[in-house]
Write a structure and sequence with these properties.
Chains A, B: One of its GO terms (molecular function) is DNA-binding transcription factor activity. Two copies of one chain form a homodimer. By secondary structure, chain A is α/β, with parallel strands linked by helices. The first copy, chain A, has ten helices and twelve strands. The first copy, chain A, has helices at residues 5-16, 19-26, 30-44, 60-85, 106-117, 130-138, 184-187, 200-211, 225-231, 282-301; strands at 49-52, 55-58, 92-98, 121-127, 144-148, 156-164, 166-171, 192-195, 218-222, 238-242, 255-259, 268-275. The first copy, chain A, has a five-stranded mixed sheet with strand order 4-3-5-12-6, with helices on both faces. A five-stranded mixed sheet of chain A has the order 9-8-10-7-11. Chain A has a two-stranded antiparallel sheet with strand order 1-2. The radius of gyration of chain A is 23 Å and the shape is elongated. Chain B binds a DNA duplex through residues 2, 18-20, 28-36, 38, 51-56.
Amino acid sequence: MKHLRLFEYIDAVVRAGSIRRASETLYITPSALDRRIQQVEEELGTQIFERHAKGMRLTAAGEIFLDYVRRHMADLDRVRSEIEGLKGLRKGHVAIVASQALALKFLPEQIRLFRSRYPGVSFSVRIADRGEALKSLIAFEADLAVVVFPKMSSEVMQLIMVAQPVVALMSALHPLAAQPTVRLSECLNYPLVLPDASLGVRELLQPILIRRTNKAQISAETNSFELMRGLLQDQRSIGFQIAIGTPDSLQESTIISRPIDERDVPAAPLICAQLRGRTLSVAAARFADQLTQQLDNMNLSV
Amino acid sequence: MKHLRLFEYIDAVVRAGSIRRASETLYITPSALDRRIQQVEEELGTQIFERHAKGMRLTAAGEIFLDYVRRHMADLDRVRSEIEGLKGLRKGHVAIVASQALALKFLPEQIRLFRSRYPGVSFSVRIADRGEALKSLIAFEADLAVVVFPKMSSEVMQLIMVAQPVVALMSALHPLAAQPTVRLSECLNYPLVLPDASLGVRELLQPILIRRTNKAQISAETNSFELMRGLLQDQRSIGFQIAIGTPDSLQESTIISRPIDERDVPAAPLICAQLRGRTLSVAAARFADQLTQQLDNMNLSV
DNA sequence: GTATAGTGTTCTAAAAAACTCAACGCTCGG
DNA sequence: CCGAGCGTTGAGTTTTTTAGAACACTATAC
């Protein structure tokens, strides 16, 4: 929409941190950008930005105004979506930020399912760690967050939570692959490939591993489950993941998962959340419905 | 603010009901107005207005969009107010819609009290009947409503309610003026000046009067308490009002009030309300605080 | 029926706003 | 002390918005 170009300008300047950098992403000149910001400040009767030698920082008034700007932009998206919704959700967009565990299987399946019913709805999915995911919600960059073991804040509203058991990942040719379930102590006999601190699973394992630190041999730490699966091809190493993020054993995968005995490792909370007080677009709200329903079913079957 | 001129245009067209009438209040030509509306409709991909021979009516999509427009105009007011609030509420505005009973004493006192603390805050007060008052809230024309015996809707949020006893009004020279309190049956011996159906007090009296319709002699019905007080100068007639709306007996008023026995007439609910889900401006919120506090004190002392 | 008064709309040109380009003054870090 | 980055300004250009008059349409009154 034409009339909120000004809002996009302000938002861009905040994100870029300076007029000149923002002007590049906006494809306009710094002078034009500067003038419009000055105009707003004049209309408000207050400085929105502190001018600094290396850029612009928001003032207290600017923080208030930025919040208004972002809410306003997100709200217009919702309005457009609702208007489209009058015609049966033919168009729409859902912006998701999610933990890595969901990138392999869960989200692709869910999006495929949703788009089979609503082909006109498009998706943008950003994979991020738990901290960044919630930040994205607050900055109105994402409609929904699906995150493993997040540290919740009061600004974020939890839509559903399911407990996800932690599983051990290994090559199909691994000695432990023959067992239906494994004990954590068995895993410690093999080299471990651990998720790093940015991932939720690690936070669950950490206190347990510390107690047995002399037994465990940590061969690698990574923030990429893809890399982890690659390392497991040595047929010796063992990795960890939550159940929902494991490769589908039906497909010809060389990596398999085995549940870890519940007594050894507690389940990981997986939550779906949105920004508190925000009204989601029709498309996002309906996708959230689908997610909560599917996750709920999953919860019951476990 | 410059960038929401478009919003004001749309709002004005809705209020005026036609482009030409709206263009007069906006001081622009109908053609300019028409073009910008068409531009919005093109950007939204939908008609916002139904074109009718005698004007424009909102479509379903238009209703959604108008709600967005009005919410955001009100929200910008709040944002500006909050920014001013950073400097100690030096400026601000509160728009009130209230029942007639409050126009004589209560609201003037409250506004005087508030402005003694915050001289920079201005007020606009519209006196309206119960139906119109709530409509004003919903149309974002007023921040707060103070109404006698309103029929609440789910869109409106009640901030406080106090029970207001109904009192009889009469000349200071009236036969009943000698008594500290009166019974309703005593009043029926005199000509009655009744508030009309648009006023809350009438709704309380109506079922009681119907039962004694043969005894009561109704000399006048009016929607103006001012007129009522004028009619009472005959030293015979009796009028009705809620306690908060009666003239101050300390001042040299020729009209006095006497409580009616509680067994005869139930108390009238007086409520202060705002639009549900709306965040008030700093000034309006603080005035609402004052109102609820004062009303609450009043409630305890009764 | 037909005139009429109201409506939305389109065409033109003019006014206003937004933007570009080039230059300036400033502050920081090497 | 200098250079790289920053925000800012002035003059000129482009785009957007508005004005004014004319047109097409539809209810309503006569």
